[in-house]
Amino acid sequence: MLVLIDHDRGQVEEVSLQVVAFGRAVGGRLDGDSVEAVVIGDQGASIAERVGTHVAVVHLVQHDALTDYAPEAWGDALAQLVVQRDARAVVGVGTDRGNEVLAHAAAVLGVPFITNVTTYERDHDDDASAFLTRQRWGGSLLEDAALAPGLAALSAAPHAFAPLEIPRPNEEVAAQSLMQLFTPNLGPEAGRTRVVERRAVGGGVTLQTAPVVVSGGRGVGSVEGFVALEQLAELLGGAVGCSRVVTNQGWRPHSDQVGQTGKRVAPILYIACGISGAIQHWIGMQSAQRVLAINIDKDAPMVTKADYAVIGDLHVVVPAIVAELQRRRA
């Protein structure tokens, strides 16, 4: 069982670590003896050491074409390792990058690719079918399916599996697994799609990593209406999001959109201001631990689903919260 660990130049997010737990589930064993991790690129050496506490082997894949993210090269390299190890499955996390690499590897191998899996059950018999549940239509539909025996690629739905505890950077690591170097055979065409330049566009927390997301919908009413939401997010150490109608109106950029066609977030607290709560938006924030809705409509879907709700005008409620937070900090 090969588990692809997605990373960005040696930095790995929590959602990518969930795939180790997913690989253990697919492997069908709790001790991890049948699970081997794959870390691509020479900058992944530190990650290889950290995930080694939960798998039997860590394959560190290195090549001159793998200095930065290159989906075709990553997919080709992964496919070659699958063949060398005679793996019965290869799994990853269902992020944009994870799905892209797995899709390419599956196409090269000519095997099925099952995305956004939330549960997986299989007997120890290699000839038995696997039974799984996966998200369809952006998470609004759960599909139960049987997977015939044989090699397959699978991606775990983000936040569907709790990440296993792994040592932090510079933390002492115990019970190291075997680390093996793998050099794939990559031709010049492997570099057709690759990252060639990076430009910093801002600092601080991002929408997908913020512990608090303050999101606005149609009820915010204008670009100026988001000023109070930005103040609240700053006071709470969070980020500002929005619904699709807001980006359609041009009040916020698409990069701020939360939902089926936007970003998926999993903050500790999601504050929905003037958002009706259509299923397309709910899909993007359903992994939030707590939801607070501020809306004038007590029957709005967001209000009925939220953990907490304030029925009132957000243009009055949000500035009042901001003023009280500022008063307490003063």
For the structure shown, list the relevant keywords.
alpha/beta, about 325 residues, about 30% helix, five-stranded parallel sheet
Low-confidence stretches: 29-33
- Helicity level, as a percent range? 25-40%
Mean pLDDT: 86
How many helical stretches? 9
| Order of adjacent strands in the largest pleated sheet | 7-6-5-8-4-1-2-3-9
How many angstroms separate the termini?
A: 55 Å
What is the quaternary state of this protein?
A: single chain
- State the major sheet: 9 strands, mixed
- Give the overall shape, derived from the CA principal axes: elongated
How would you sum up this structure, described in words?
α3 (71-85) packs across α4 (96-109) and α5 (226-235) runs parallel beside α9. It is built from 9 helices and 14 strands. It is an alpha/beta fold and 330 residues long. It is elongated. Residues 29-33 have low confidence and may be disordered. The strands form 2 sheets. It has a 9-stranded mixed sheet with strand order 7-6-5-8-4-1-2-3-9, with helices on both faces. A 5-stranded parallel sheet has the order 11-10-12-13-14. α2 (45-51) links the parallel β2 (36-40) and β3 (57-61). The chain has helices at 14-27, 45-51, 71-85, 96-109, 226-235, 244-249, 279-285, 301-305, 314-329, and strands spanning 2-4, 36-40, 57-61, 90-93, 113-121, 130-136, 141-147, 153-156, 178-182, 212-216, 239-242, 269-273, 290-295, 308-311.
